[in-house]
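Please, structure for the following, as tokens.
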Amino acid sequence: MKRRKAKPARALAVIGWIVAGLCLLPMVAAALAALTSGTDTITHLWQTVLPSYAVTTLQLVVMVALSTGLIGVGAAWLVTMTRFPLVRFFEVALVLPLAFPAYVLAYAYTHILDHPGIVQSLLRDVTGWGPRDYWFPEVRSVGGAAAMLILVLYPYVYLLARAAFLQQTGGAYLAARALGRSPFGAFLSVGLPMARPAIAAGVLLAVMETIADYGTVAYFGVPTFATGIYQSWFTMADRGAAAQLASCLLVFALMLAAAERLQRGKARYHAAGKRHVPVPPETLTGWVRWGATLLCAVPVLLGFLLPTVILIDMALGSEQDLLSRRYIGFIRNSITLAGVAAIVTVAAAISLGYFQRLRPGRGSGTAGLIARLGYAVPGGVIAVGLLVPFAAFDNSLDAFMRESFDISTGLLLTGSIWALVLAYMIRFLAAALGAYEGGQAMVHPNMDAAARSLGQGAFGTLRRVHLPILTPSILTALLIVFVDVMKELPATLIMRPFNFDTLAVQAHRLAADERLEGAAVPSLVILAVGLVPVILICLQVRRKNA
């Protein structure tokens, strides 16, 4: 009996470590490729572009971190702790910009803010100024890229901060009010420190998405590590430079992941009372309530409503036919990649999550930690880290087969769909694992014991008990990964098979050729798909607070 029970556990351990090893492979490969490329490349990079990459990336990180923190925390506090006109609407609407990829937002705003756009054209018509008679902010700049990223990433901070505010008890808050603090003063002295871990986690998540972004910074011509990796790999055909840039970005991303883990592990607070008493919301009056309405309306207007209207107008004026055979091919490729990657990723998450439940301890915990690292690693780093060993394997196998049997095997792994699916799995496994483990925590250990007493083994318990109960969590994980893959750009650009383009690639290509109206069509499809999980999140937020 013990042997029969040990076999499933051993099999899950093997699967779990294989998944963890695959997640670790691109990071190790990128580091080894960087170390074996010599110092000439990195010296040249240091003397030419590396300082600008570092400075620009740091500028983006600082601007996004500060702005998403201010907007996300401010909006979360207003809709949670106060009452003003349309507050119930903004509880949900503030999440909607999350559906936009930042590069799609960049296409929309460039269309209206660039020199020939409607805003500057109207300004010249009204004032009679010439092109050199006035100054206008340049959208294709570091500040413009930061603005696009801020508008789509602040919902991360908003969601986590709002959840933290809702979980706070009203005792400390009421005590601060009784001691003479204003509502805002009580927020600064009590509410904000108690919500700090959740706020820091949201800001760090926004920052990791910032350093992983390629589409926005590439379109705006902003030099960052992400654009440098792509240019080194394709434009200069220098894999050593790409690997060394990827390693620099990898170190920075892992430092952020470590910082998030440390702050989450040490920063806690505990309610003093046994019963949860929610913080009573303040009803705003006079001009203050309309000011709160305006503050919440601005990010929704700029981050969702206005760009959606712009994209629809652009799409109506384009010559792109969404029902043409070419676009049907883009949609089919996107759905195929996203569907296969979602199934593979969620299957890996189930195997790893159940392994951690069946064999809790340092080994399974380490495997889970390694698997989560992929979400902190940009898609370009993963792509380079996978292509280096895959290309070496393909070349070695082809040379052996030519020498031994006079047969050319070609490229079996490099440039294949399965290599791209593996990159997606590594990149988004943490999101699927989080959704699965959130549901798994609701399955009481007594259910496992009851299943074993009825003769079910480990796999039988998973199939007959866990999976039926966890169906909503599994579907959520599938949906999250599906949408993330639809939006992913850098890994797709680097690793996609020849002549296998997706909606994201098509949008990027048209925008790079300054055909913004054409880029609006695939961008709208990506947005429509991205709205599905955002709407589900909004419904969940409303259900929890009804």
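The domain at 37-223+284-316 is CATH 1.10.3720.10 (MetI-like fold). Residues 267-274 have pLDDT under 50 and may be disordered.
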